[in-house]
Amino acid sequence: MSSTERHHKPVKFSPQLFDHWEGGEDPETISQAAHSSAWAILCQGRGTSDPAVTARLVEFTDHYGLDAIAEMWAEAPGVSLPGALWRIYALRDTVRRNPDVVGRYYELGQGSAEVARVVAGVADPPAADELCRTVDAILTGAYTGEFDVALERFAAFCRVVALGQAVAADRNDVAVHPAGAEAGARASEFFTDPGSSRVGARLTRASRRLITTAEELESAAGAWRHGQLD
User: Fold this and answer.
1) In terms of C-beta density within 10 A (0-12 exposed, 13-18 middle, 19 or more buried), how is residue 194 classed?
2) What are the residue ranges spanned by the domains of the chain?
3) What whole-number distance in Å separates Cα of residue 162 and Cα of residue 110?
4) Burial 12-51 (b: 16+ CB within 10 A, else e)
5) By C-alpha distance, which of 41, 56, 29 is closest to 4?
6) How does pLDDT run across 15-64, given as a tens digit for each residue?
7) Strands (DSSP E) found in 90-221
8) How many CB atoms lie within 10 A of CB 115?
9) What is the pTM of this model?
10) What is the rounded distance in angstroms from the CA atom of residue 98 to the CA atom of residue 6?
11) What contacts 221, CB < 8 A, 6 or more positions away?
């Protein structure tokens, strides 16, 4: 669906589009700036056939850092254009900074998330370089293909990684506890005790946040298809 033309004419891309909006202390001004810049960037990306421009958009945070867009988009609602763009850029940045770690979680989760794995489209095994190529390809598709499909692929990616984090959390929470004879159990028994380890608790929280992100991206994709994402 092509609804980018509804709001803003394409403008020339420059890093200054992400600069702090003057008077940004006012929440309404910040919101207007977030939506205006998001539409300007999306229109520019979807309105060009120049692969160099698309590459500059995809690789923006590589050159200017995630903070360059965080100030403008990070506080936007998840089901909004700036909120959706913030989440996919932040996800790409996380993958590129920690491809081996994310790859381990993805591998742990993919066996129990067949549908999400197929939608995300990461080759098996999910090596570090493959993950980086995939997230770049998905973000490129946001500008050159169907925007809602790109959002759904990122959402599916989040779901697989989140499941892998949950698996890793369970493994960290497995503890050895003595079982008395009255319990009719062996002298010791392995069982899962959610939150019993600091690492397990952290991974569980991270997994839940990623699931929330996936749900927001899926809702944003649906809103886009109905011409309601703003």
Assistant:
1) exposed
2) 4-225
3) 10
4) ebeeebbeebeebeeeeebbebbbbbbbbbbbbbbebeee
5) 41
6) 443 343 344 457 778 788 899 999 999 999 999 999 999 999 999 999 88
7) 174-178, 188-192
8) 10
9) 0.79
10) 37
11) 147, 148, 149, 151, 152, 155
